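Lay summary. Proteins are chains of building blocks that fold into shapes, and those shapes determine what they do. In this project we predict the shape from the chain. Here is one chain we studied, written as its sequence of building blocks.
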Amino acid sequence: MITIPSLENLCSRLSQQKLDWERILERFKNLSQYNPNKYLSGVQYSHEFSEICLDLFLEELITEGVPIELVRYSEENPLIRGNYRLFNKTNNYEFDQIAILDEIPMVFEIKNRKWNTGISRNRRLKNGTYKKEKNDSIINNLRHEVYERKLKPVKKVFGRDVGYIIIIPADLYILHVQNESQSDVVHNFLQQNGQIVPFYMGRLKFHEDVISQIRKWKFPLRE
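And here is the predicted shape, written in a compact code that computers can read:
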């Protein structure tokens, strides 16, 4: 992973961004996959809204003059698809956002989930066999073998190393990143130039606010 001086400023400003629920909910209603009759769980809404938060945060920083450019599908980037969720279909990896900062590609992901669920899963390989993998918790995404595999297709598209920024709930950031007794996984991720940015509120508080807004706007909620 790569870092540059302007990335530190970007991460600092990202951590200061605040929610605008009206903009989030309007953006959600304008997504191509939005179905006003489809019932989603609170966890699913939290996932959708957190990704929209990231998009709006980055767009707001652009209006404030931060020199970043969001990557969209183009002839130069034929493997990048989608308006808000960018992914490489060939390798079936999905990223929340990709942007260019001072000519360097930056991969952004927002993880509003548990630090470690302790649950593993089976990933289907191209030859039809399955490989047991660690869970998709926050700490697992910080493991070298996981982020290297995820970033490989992005590096291939751009032909160079990239920056990697993960946004996590504020309470988990305080507990696991700011804590002097960091785990080896966190320490190694930061040593390899990975960036961990605190969302401005905790995981459970965000989930509670999501449920409140869903009921206020009368979106179909699967209890």
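What the prediction tells us: The first helix runs from residue 5 to 14.
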